[in-house]
Specification:
heterodimer; A: ABC transporter involved in vitamin B12 uptake, BtuC; 72% helix; globular; B: ABC transporter involved in vitamin B12 uptake, BtuC; two-stranded antiparallel ribbon; 14 helices; 3% strand; transmembrane transporter activity (chain A); ABC_transp_permease (chain A); cell membrane (chain A); ABC transporter permease (chain A); transmembrane (chain A)
Chain lengths: 303, 359
């Protein structure tokens, strides 16, 4: 029972971790992309479509990434190319993504796919308790963990990471040093889009074996909140994603046990928890902000 | 990059007026391309969308009925956006307003009430919407939390609350287990402007609110404050304008208008409380606000245009089997075009020197 719960927490946390990892990189470059929900749902639709047509989880995942990046490219053209307000453009992206995903989803109403295969290492996967948890996950779980391990290293220890952070903290300085801020930010937005697309694709590929129009259910918005919760630090992001995964799974189990509260209250818990966490974390930080200094502001060099 | 932006010395006055029109024109061209991609005759589809609804009185009335909540909410949101604070949870405030107003209708159901009932419901709806909108506003000014994320999260919470009420305590015992309250009494429903139609008094109220907002924004000190805080925060600080109080005020007004729109929908065209009372009015209103360039009178026109796409979309679904999700795609595309065109008021697009030489 405990093992089953822990396994389902990993599955619930992985899409949050993937989407939030990508958004963290985007925001560290100074761009606030509120369209995560839209990129996720289009990733879910295209990810399902790819896997359904080819029977391959891998192709599905790649389709999800491509779809997320395509929407992100539109967002980059708007906010970086045309210096459009990032908040409004992010909302437009979510509305557009939801609509497009619905249209694409009409192609496979009621269809199902086989779930992503799980890792199986003879001996190790069969270990009691930890075996399945550590060595028996689907490949995308390991991808998400690899990403969250690589991101802090790249951001803190490589030249590319330093330049990216410069674009997010002081775009004018990065520009003065001869870096192409628009290009750096575009790449960061595309990376975020790819991650969100993969996060969306994870839902039909590994979570539920079908596509439904509302299946992201606000996870993109929760991923955005997780980046704030993590204070833009990758290590805390992982803790946050797993905490939220746990809340969303435990409320399901609480409903199943039939504790005396209305089921709707339990379903609202992840969203209420997000509000409470946002308030608490902002309160702790009051005084010194840790957000990238240029977050959400367009950069148009004066010549 | 082959192109780059260059800040204009003066905002382009021609673009100020033209940008929404260009955006609408581009959207219509995009729609034609999308219809063609779906294998429909683009011209016939556009006619069903934009011309047919304008030719019969029923559709014209429906446009007014649909535009009224959109305009009401968008007017409130435009005040927030002008002050540079982001309420994107109007959908949740709408639902809370609908629930609060409905409480009175459910509680007095079947009893003999007076003419006070409906005004009391509307007031309650507006008050509840305002209070719900004050949650993200207070979290922002008190704790520095993101009003964008909190207002959006509260939409989901409001949806679950509505679901609970109509499946639980407020369910109509004679409703065959459908998740809905009993049909409201006559005293708890909006009076009709034309007997037998769906055109209700809320439409007039919407127009009055537009005029009120236009006066507030253009002719009062508060309106001036809103514009200055949004456009020049430092100047506002020197003038002694309190940005925090303004955040509370604009959130409260926008929440009240969204709540009012919610209870009017329930007490007007729908007649009872049920899940799905709003086809995303709170989100579409964001597009209306931007298409109207955050100006109350232009928002009225923008609201009518988006209402037209709602009605046209319904008819296109029936007549041409064009899927309903197309409406969302169109809305998203429209918002992108509006934002892009607005950007050209402040900037011009220039080819970069390197590419000019190559050409």
């Amino acid at each position: 029972m405990l093992e089953a719960i822990l396994l389902s927490i990993v599955t619930a946390s992985t899409p949050l971790l993937l989407a939030a990892s990508g958004e963290l990189v985007t925001e560290r470059a100074g761009v606030l992309n509120l369209g995560v929900e839209g990129m996720m749902i289009i990733g879910a639709a295209c990810g399902f479509g790819g896997a359904w047509l080819t029977g391959s989880t891998m192709v599905g995942a790649l389709c999800g990434i491509a779809a997320g990046m395509a929407l992100a490219a539109l967002f980059a053209a708007m906010t970086i190319g045309l210096a459009v307000n990032q908040v409004a453009a992010g909302l437009a992206l979510t509305i557009l993504g939801t609509g497009l995903a619905g249209l694409i989803g009409l192609g496979f109403v009621g269809e199902r796919i086989t779930a992503a295969p799980h890792l199986a290492i003879p001996g190790l996967t069969d270990l009691p308790m930890v075996g399945k948890l550590v060595f028996g996950q689907d490949p995308l779980v390991y991808v998400s963990l690899g990403l969250i391990a690589a991101i802090p290293f790249v951001l803190a220890r490589t030249r590319a990471g330093l330049v990216l952070r410069a674009a997010g903290d002081n775009a004018a300085a990065a520009h003065a040093l001869g870096y192409d801020v628009a290009k750096i930010r575009t790449l960061a937005v595309l990376f975020g889009g790819g991650c969100a697309g993969l996060a969306g694709a994870y839902l039909p590929l590994a979570y539920t074996p079908f596509f439904a129009p509302g299946m992201t259910a606000g996870r993109g918005w929760i991923a955005l909140a997780l980046v704030v919760f993590a204070s833009w630090r990758p290590a805390r992001l992982m803790a946050g994603a797993y905490l939220f995964g746990a809340v969303s799974i435990l409320q399901l189990h609480a409903q199943a046990f039939g504790i005396g509260l209305p089921s709707q209250l339990m379903s609202a818990l992840p969203y209420l928890a997000t509000v409470i966490v946002l308030v608490l974390i902002s309160r702790v930080r009051r005084g010194g902000s840790v957000a990238p200094a240029a977050l959400g502001t367009a950069f148009v060099p004066d010549r | 990059m082959p192109f780059r932006l260059e800040r204009r010395a003066e905002p382009a006055t021609a673009m100020v007026a033209l940008s929404p029109l260009i955006a609408v024109a581009l959207t219509i061209v995009t729609m034609a391309a999308l219809f063609a991609a779906l294998g429909k005759d683009p011209l016939a589809a556009l006619q069903v969308y934009f011309i047919v609804p304008l030719t019969d009185t029923y559709s014209l009335q429906e446009i007014a009925v649909k535009a009224s909540p959109l305009v009401m909410i968008a007017v409130g949101l435009s005040l927030c956006y002008r002050a540079n604070v982001w309420n994107i949870g109007a959908e949740g405030q709408l639902l809370i307003g609908a629930m609060a107003g409905s409480w009175l209708a459910v509680a007095t159901h079947g009893t003999n009430t007076g003419p006070w009932l409906l005004p009391a419901m509307l007031l309650l709806g507006a008050a509840a919407g305002a209070l719900y909108a004050l949650i993200p506003a207070l979290c922002k000014i008190r704790f520095g939390a993101s009003e964008i994320l909190i207002s959006l999260m509260l939409v989901y919470v409001a949806e679950f609350a509505l679901d609970y009420l109509v499946r639980g305590p407020w369910r109509d015992p004679a409703g065959f287990n459908f998740p809905t309250t009993a049909e409201f009494d006559a005293a708890a429903t909006m009076p009709l402007l034309i007997a037998g139609s769906r055109l209700h008094a809320g439409v007039i109220l919407g127009v009055l609110l537009v005029i009120g907002a236009a006066v507030l924004l253009g002719r009062t000190l508060k309106g001036f404050e809103i514009r200055v805080v949004g456009a020049a925060p430092r100047a506002a600080q020197f003038a002694g304008f309190d940005a925090d109080r303004l955040t509370l005020t604009t959130f409260a007004i926008s929440g009240a208008l969204a709540g009012l729109a919610g209870i009017i929908e329930v007490a007007g065209p729908i007649g009872h409380l049920q899940p799905g009372i709003s086809p995303g009015y709170g989100f579409t209103a964001i597009i209306v606000a931007f298409l109207g360039r955050l100006d109350p009178l232009a928002i009225l026109a923008a609201g009518l245009f988006l209402a037209l796409t709602f009605i046209g979309g319904e008819q296109a679904q029936i007549a041409l089997k064009i899927p309903q999700d197309m409406a969302k795609v169109i809305q998203g595309v429209l918002l992108f075009y509006v934002l892009a065109c607005d950007s050209l008021i402040l900037y011009r697009v220039r080819r970069t020197a390197a590419h000019r030489k190559a050409a």
